[in-house]
Write a structure and sequence with these properties.
The complex is a heterodimer of chains A (89) and B (314). With 89 residues, chain A is mostly beta strands. Chain A has strands at residues 15-16, 27-30, 37-40, 46-47. In chain A, strands 2-3-4 form a 3-stranded antiparallel sheet, with no helix packed on it. With 314 residues, chain B is α+β, with helices and mostly antiparallel strands. Chain B folds into 3 domains: 2-112, no CATH class; 140-202; 206-311, ATP-grasp fold, B domain (D-amino Acid Aminotransferase, Chain A, domain 1). The longest helix of chain B is centred in the first third of the chain and has 19 residues, at 85-103. Chain B is globular. The two termini of chain B are 18 Å apart. The chains are: A mainly beta (89), B alpha+beta (314). At the A-B interface, strand 1, strand 2 and strand 3 of A face helix 1, strand 8, helix 3, strand 12 and strand 13 of B. Strand 1 (15-16) of chain A pairs antiparallel with strand 13 (175-178) of chain B.
Chain lengths: 89, 314
């Protein structure tokens, strides 16, 4: 008996995801006073995460870091950000 | 209390607004840092059923009983690098239920949104069913793993589109992959439909624009998204988009209010396709969707309205 099923058709619809804007920072922690994210570049200098994400070379799509499917960077993520409690599988 | 990780510029926009107003103290907590950098000991009062006790981060110490509102954004799963897979999964599940469960059970807190309500509202089949029941225009929809049924749906409703029921992380040859909503061309359907559940929808023909409507309480922020190229799924290329704050089409604000109430949500991001006749078609509602990138081009005061909601002023 063959229990296997084919690789889902839906996966054949996958394509390269537009690269997120290059990260202009290397570390992030929480500012103890303001509770805002505090982004630093490789030299430890505090940078603005939005300003520190310039668009790069032509032909490469860069998506805003707060946009859907993109918040947090690093590839496509669910639009919904329940995170912690959406681990339902 | 803002439940999120350090890298979350959307939460930053709301926290900055709350700081500016100065009416409440903000604590940013990522339960994923428990038990190393976040501490919590919660005691249940058997009389009142209330959780009390200290919770702390590296920069904030407070009592669970004093939390007035919770902005549930993007907590991370906790990590246990020193443990084997089974032990780590056990430990992670205990944090999820124990810490996440307590943070979702604070009786005096208003939640934007409650995480369990978000979870329940994420299922597309439920979204579409409720939307149709409330009188939104909803495209004909099929969920199937039967190739013959899919072909028959395509014959009847062409053109149709495919969209994944749930987005997961996909990587091919080291590059991140996405599955955008695209038209299914005749002949593309094959027997690998049998591989899992697939969602097909009649395409909204004559689509001229998209509407992304963020509703916070009863406040409606309706943004028309136009693309310089003909695209079904605007998320696939932000460089081609322009944004314009517009009045919502007649009738949808009331329906969105009913929708949010039905799911117990304070806010939601609704996606509509607008056809040439100005008719909006409900595509989905993301219960914890993104909105901050639309604020600069439209000038809509969305972060301020989230702050209002957290202060209890909506």
């Amino acid at each position: 008996m063959n229990d296997s099923v084919p690789t889902p058709w839906g996966l054949s619809r996958a394509s390269d995801f537009a690269e997120p804007a290059p990260l202009g920072y290397s570390t992030v922690d929480v500012d103890p006073v303001t509770q805002l994210g505090r982004f630093r570049d490789g030299n430890g200098v505090v940078v603005d995460p939005m300003m520190a994400s310039p668009k790069h070379g032509s032909g490469t799509t860069t998506n805003p870091r707060t946009a859907t499917g993109q918040d947090g960077g690093g590839g496509p993520a669910p639009d919904s950000d329940s995170g912690f409690d959406s681990d339902r599988d | 209390m803002v439940i999120t990780e350090a890298d979350d510029v959307t939460a930053d926009a709301v926290i900055a607004e709350l700081n500016k107003r100065g009416r409440c103290e903000v604590a940013r907590v990522d339960p994923g840092e428990f038990p190393r950098d976040v501490s919590m000991s919660a005691s249940l009062d058997p009389e009142s059923g209330r959780w009390t006790g200290p919770i702390g981060t590296s920069s904030r110490q407070f009592d669970l009983a004093d939390v007035t509102s919770v902005y549930w954004r993007r907590p991370t799963p906790s990590t246990f690098p020193g443990l084997d897979q089974a032990a780590a999964e056990f430990a992670r599940a205990q944090v999820r239920e124990g810490v996440g469960g307590v943070l979702a059970s604070l009786p005096n807190a208003r939640y934007v949104n409650h995480p369990h309500r978000n979870w329940a509202a994420e299922y597309k089949p439920h979204q579409l069913a409720v939307a149709a029941e409330l009188g939104f225009n909803v495209p004909a929809t099929l969920i199937t793993a039967d190739p013959a049924v899919a072909r028959s749906f395509a014959d009847k409703h062409a053109p149709i589109v495919y969209k994944p029921l749930r987005v997961t992380s996909l990587v091919r040859e080291g590059r991140a992959q996405a599955i955008w909503t695209r038209r299914v061309e005749p002949g593309e359907l094959d027997d690998s439909i049998a591989g899992t559940a697939h969602l097909f929808q009649a395409e909204v023909v004559d689509k001229v624009a998209d509407l992304r409507v963020t509703m916070v309480g009863d406040e409606v922020f309706c943004v028309r998204i136009d693309s310089s190229v003909d695209r079904l799924d605007w998320r696939s290329d932000y460089d081609t988009l322009s944004y314009q704050a517009v009045e919502p089409p007649v009738g949808i604000s009331e329906r969105m209010q009913f929708y949010l109430r039905r799911f117990g949500l304070i806010f939601g991001c609704f996606d509509f396709a607008l056809d040439a006749g100005g008719v909006p078609y409900f595509l989905e509602c993301n219960p914890n969707g993104q909105w901050a990138w639309m604020e600069p081009p439209t000038g809509l005061p969305m972060a301020a309205t989230f702050a209002d909601a957290l202060e209890g002023n909506l």
